[in-house]
Amino acid sequence: MKHLLSAADLSFHEIIEILDLAEEMHTVQSRPIKKLPALRGKTIINMFFEDSTRTRTSFELAGKWLSADTLNISGKGSAVSKGESMKDTMLTLDSMGVDAFIIRHSGSGSVHQAASWVKASVLNAGDGAHEHPTQALLDAFAMRRHFREQGVGDLDGRTILIAGDLAHSRVVRSNVLLLHTLGATVQLCAPPTLLPAGVQYWGAEVLDDFDAAIEGADAVMMLRVQKERMSSAFFPSEREYIDGWGLTPQRITTMKPTAAICHPGPMNRGLEISSAAADAANSLVLDQVSAGVAVRMSVLYLMLGGEGEK
Amino acid sequence: MPADSPDGASASNPPIAPDDAGILDDAEIRRSLSRMAHEIVEENHGTGNLVVLGIQTRGVPLARRMAEQLNQIEQSTIPVGSLDITMYRDDLHRNPTRSVGQTDVPRDIDGKVIVLVDDVLYTGRTVVAALDALKDLGRPEQVKLAVLIDRGHRQVPIQPDHVGRVLRTSRRQRVTVELSETDGVDRVTVIEGTAP
């Protein structure tokens, strides 16, 4: 695996390898000495042109716990703010002998382009409303664990309902691709104004009846209403959004007893997800965060741990 | 030990003939493990404080058998675990990405006596990696090394504490340990060919 740009790059076998290895990596998190020597001498640069707490921190921790040297570069405070192009910045860093770039950028497709410029490996940490493959991997990791604990099997054959602001979400695209490869059924539910263009070609079921969908789902993944990306009103009022599309305390009572609640964060508590849902016993919100480091360690190891193709 | 010739064999101790197919059969493997278990109990004055750790992959079933033997001798319940040393290998970056196996080590190994178990001791580099891995998991009181086969040709100063069988091999030969848990049969064989 040279780059990880899209969840579609990964075969079933590769995803299972990443998730199984992440189980091993997860045990390191609870050790007194959180260190493995696997990436000693490797250099990883986090380039975040958009704000992020959990993704950037978890990539940095993942690199550090594998003994790689990790650096953070943001748009602000680098030569980018002096007008240097992203390409020139990356070529500069690439010629210093960097092994991997982890990139978040607001432009959909920007990370794919970046991968063609440099010799180092490139990992997509979110490009615009396009993709965020490691988020889909960590969601799969958390749900897989939950389903095993509940004794309902693996992700294969499960029904995952993704609801909320799908139009502005990169998480939904990566999740649909990854969950399909894993054999799950993906259902999408959103106000018509927040459905992405071309969603009918994704191979996922698009449902109108949120209440009926919740009753049949093995996991309900709520996506954040991305107010910062909305130039105009996509729905009449917050009140109306909660009534139609929010995971309210009433709605969680209709879920299957073994079903899980997911949210990639950051959450708008009281809007797309109620506090009762976010803090419920079957909520995986914090498991998703803790899975983030393990899954990213696993991906970084498989990307940089050896020389040449397997 | 006599000085090795370039291919590892000496005149008085010729390498094992390749047609000598079954070097150890199931009964001999069982006796070797049983003898090593008795040695360990004697040396350690019992099994208190012992933790048996198998090095992935063939060391793990051997460690389980060893612990069973120790438990039988002393009527005890010794913790058994597995140690994967892939990420500690000194040649990790010289090869394509290797798969990582399971590491399952009892929570607290500080102050314990660890018995590391592996199938074949060869260059000794795996044991160095295992010691590095242990260091990240805690600080045991002592670490002992028990191997089913010692085939010589060390590249680092590592010696086993307990050995099932010493085999005089040449570097061209390959020692294969098969165990019923992983391979359906208990057998140690030596074949001609380049070692991996």
Question: Could you characterize the architecture of this molecule?
Answer:
The complex is a heterodimer of chains A (310) and B (196). By secondary structure, chain A is α/β, with parallel strands linked by helices. Chain A has two domains: 7-131 and 290-304, 3-Layer(aba) Sandwich (Rossmann fold); 133-289, Rossmann fold (3-Layer(aba) Sandwich). Chain A contains eleven helices and nine strands. In chain A, helix 6 (170-181) links the parallel strand 5 (159-164) and strand 6. In chain A, helix 1 (12-29) packs across helix 5 (133-149). The N and C termini of chain A lie close together (9 Å). Chain B is 26% helix and 24% strand. Chain B is globular and about 45 Å long. Chain B has a domain at 26-90 and 102-171: Rossmann fold (3-Layer(aba) Sandwich), CATH 3.40.50.2020. In chain B, helix 3 (125-135) links the parallel strand 4 and strand 5. Chain B has four helices and eight strands, in the order E-H-E-H-E-E-H-E-E-E-H-E. At the A-B interface, helix 1 and helix 11 of A face loops of B.
Which descriptors would you attach to this protein?
heterodimer; A: 310 residues; alpha/beta; Rossmann fold; five-stranded parallel beta sheet; four-stranded parallel beta sheet; 11 helices; 38% helix; 15% strand; B: 196 residues; three-stranded antiparallel beta sheet; disordered N terminus
Q: Which secondary-structure class do the elements of chain A indicate?
A: alpha/beta
Mean pLDDT across all amino acids of chain B: 89
- H and E string of chain B: EHEHEEHEEEHE
Q: DSSP strand (E) fraction of chain A?
A: 15-25%
Q: What's the CATH C level of the largest domain in chain A?
A: Alpha Beta
Radius of gyration of chain A: 19 Å
Distance between the termini of chain A: 9 Å
CATH fold node name of the largest domain in chain A: Rossmann fold
Strand sequence of the main sheet of chain A, in spatial order?
Answer: 7-6-5-8-9
Content-based structural category of chain B: alpha/beta
Largest interface: A-B, 23 and 19 residues
Please provide the ordered H/E string of secondary-structure elements of chain A.
HEHEHEHEHEHEEHEHHEHH
Largest sheet of chain B: 5 strands, parallel
Reported CATH architecture of the largest domain in chain A: 3-Layer(aba) Sandwich
- The percent of residues in helical segments of chain A reads 25-40%
Indicate the overall shape of chain B.
Answer: globular
